[in-house]
Write a structure and sequence with these properties.
The chain is an alpha+beta fold. Helices cover 35% and strands 26% of the residues. The chain is globular.
Length: 306
């Protein structure tokens, strides 16, 4: 075993031989959008993200389905499964089986297995003081999907957020090979700060994040101010405890930084001098990317918000 759960990394890694390792993860969740086909697509993209974050190439997947048989039209279930299969096909991943059960609520996701070279695996640890922090998607999906749930999300806002959740992280990782990327994680349920905290602890450093530079999805500020907040924000705040130095960050922005994401972007660190080169490469590959902060020596906190 090369990677387990010691530092809450994105996937487990098991070496087969000198040149090949298995990378494996699982993820599933209830519906977060109204369209069952799109929900299936997002669930697949979200599960695949962990493999990409480790530097792996996903190869095959097993589906996980919970469905209230007899209470909902099974056409909905077919659309969910077809949506997931559609996204897996885009990622060139074979769905070779799975497991379903009767449940009181819908749940859907995948176990995904990928391959990687044992010496070319990205971990969520290894950040060094002086590294720059890059984020490859704006944040806000938890707040937006909560607004969708209550029928209070503008269509344009929902559509844009959906497109972000349907965007695979594959193209971003393909640009890493020419740079000295020190650590990578994907931003999901623990929010930007929760996953940043895990990286900081694993690396023994402090992440200094400039709140003004963190990209936000369209409309998320207004929705947050309107109180359309998922319960996961408070859970993430408790998880972080006293690890964050908030400075003068407004309460609404604190909530956005804690917002649990679905199929979020990658957060990674690399030497600051390599940032222009990598940003140019990501731009050429049509990958969104923003520098949101720096890695510093740790004194009292693991995260400092400027």
């Amino acid at each position: 075993m090369l990677v387990g759960f010691e530092t809450a990394d994105d996937a487990g890694v098991y070496r087969i031989d000198e040149n090949q390792a298995i990378v494996q993860t699982t993820d599933f969740f209830p519906p977060i959008v109204d369209d069952p086909f799109v929900y299936g697509q997002i669930a697949a993209a979200n599960a695949l993200s962990d493999i990409y974050a480790m530097g792996g190439v996903p190869r095959f997947a097993l589906s996980i389905v919970g469905f209230p048989v007899g209470k909902l039209d099974e056409t909905m279930l077919r659309k969910i499964v077809f949506g997931g299969a559609n996204m897996m096909r885009e990622a060139e991943v074979s769905v070779i089986g799975g497991h379903s059960l009767k449940d009181t609520n819908i749940k859907f996701g995948y176990v995904v297995t990928g391959l990687a070279h044992p010496k070319r695996i990205y971990l969520n640890r290894g950040l060094c003081p002086g590294d720059a922090l890059i984020l490859t998607k704006p944040i806000g999906t938890g707040i937006i999907t909560t607004a969708i749930k209550y029928g209070k999300c503008p269509d344009k806002v929902a559509q844009e957020a959906t497109q972000w959740m349907l965007t695979l992280n594959r193209a971003a990782v393909a640009c890493f090979e020419s740079c000295e990327v020190h650590a990578v994680t994907d931003v999901t349920g623990y929010g930007l700060l929760g996953h940043a905290f895990e990286m900081a602890v694993a690396s023994g450093v402090c992440l200094e994040i400039d709140a003004a530079k963190v990209p936000l999805m369209q409309g998320v500020k207004k929705l947050a101010n309107d109180g359309l907040l998922p319960g996961g924000i408070e859970s993430n705040k408790k998880y972080l405890g006293e690890a964050v130095e908030w400075g003068g960050t407004q309460a609404s922005m604190q909530k956005i930084l804690l917002d649990p994401q679905t199929s979020g972007g990658l957060l990674f660190g690399l030497p600051s001098q390599q940032v222009p080169q990598l940003l140019e490469m990501l731009g050429s590959a049509q990958v969104f990317a923003k520098c949101i902060g720096l890695v510093e020596n740790r004194s009292t906190h693991y995260i400092s918000i400027q």
